[in-house]
From TrEMBL:
Residues 41-196 form the Plastid lipid-associated protein/fibrillin conserved domain. Its main location: plastid. InterPro entries: PAP (IPR039633), PAP/fibrillin_dom (IPR006843). Keywords: Plastid. One of its GO terms (cellular component) is plastid. It is found in: Plastid. This is Plastid lipid-associated protein/fibrillin conserved domain-containing protein.
Length: 261
């Protein structure tokens, strides 16, 4: 699927953007033009732009440009950030962060294990509690129906648009084994014993969390360390309302776009 400029916004906006010579003038003319859009249209433009990119993992240079233009258009409509809107579960729909983008493709670990990546989330508590979780859901065909990698951090507000993150621990939880794997513990031809039942229950309820510096098995450590590096210690929030969150890491400039789950 190829998105054309005309499918997102009027040609006048792109004409104004393209004819501005200097980079600063280009961005300024782009923002001024987008300020004529309403917020609902700007958000629709952004979602249309990210739709064919596999959350950024397969985005071409042209697609990244279209996403950036739509992102700037929505950010131009941003008002004073209301941190009361931040708590809750947010689902990642796009990232340009080089360490995280490969994880957004469903077989992002295929070079290591047959792991299939599912949805990726960020969950914030209230500002007072100051807790945040980065969550990657996954499955292993034939073995695990589902599971999740969780990276936990604390956060504190440092400015009207900037928060400081401190990553603390990472782990694996919510494991749900397949029928095939369950049959190894409780064969279908034999009565299910109390011991096998307890083993299945313990596996489903198991949680293994370690301090980030302690390390995890390599395949999972790759995911947690990528998230830690990419979200970094400072996180700039460029847009936040009831159903859309846009943030960027300071330093490398990778963007993260979320919708409320």
């Amino acid at each position: 699927m190829t998105l054309k400029h005309s499918s997102l916004v009027s040609g006048d906006c792109f004409a104004a953007f393209d004819t501005a010579r200097r980079p600063q003038a280009r961005r300024q003319s782009h923002i001024s033009c987008y300020q004529t859009l309403d917020k609902a249209t700007a958000k629709q433009n952004l979602r249309l732009a990210v739709a064919p990119t596999q959350r950024g993992g397969s985005a071409s240079l042209q697609q990244r440009g279209v996403v950036l233009e739509a992102q700037i258009g929505l950010e131009a409509l941003s008002e004073t950030l209301d941190y009361d809107l931040l708590p809750g579960l947010w689902k990642l729909i796009y990232t340009s962060a080089p360490d995280v983008a490969p994880l957004t493709i469903s077989n992002g670990f295929s070079d290591l294990l047959p792991v299939r990546i599912g949805d990726i989330y960020q969950e914030f508590s209230s500002v007072v509690l100051g807790q945040v979780k980065n969550i990657i859901t996954f499955r292993v065909p034939g073995l695990l129906e589902s599971g999740s990698i969780e990276v936990r951090a604390s956060y504190a507000v440092r400015s009207p648009r900037r928060i400081m993150l401190e990553f603390r621990e990472a782990g694996i939880r919510d494991l749900q084994i397949t029928d095939r794997a369950e049959a190894l513990l409780a064969p279908a031809l034999l009565p299910r014993s109390w011991l096998s039942h307890r083993a299945l229950l313990a596996l489903r309820e198991a949680e293994v969390f370690l301090p980030l510096r302690a390390g995890l098995p390599s395949v999972f450590n790759r995911a947690s360390s990528n998230l830690e590096r990419s979200f970094g210690s400072e996180y700039l929030l460029t847009f936040l309302d009831e159903d859309t969150l846009i943030g960027s890491q300071t330093g490398t400039g990778g963007t993260f776009i979320f919708e409320r789950a």
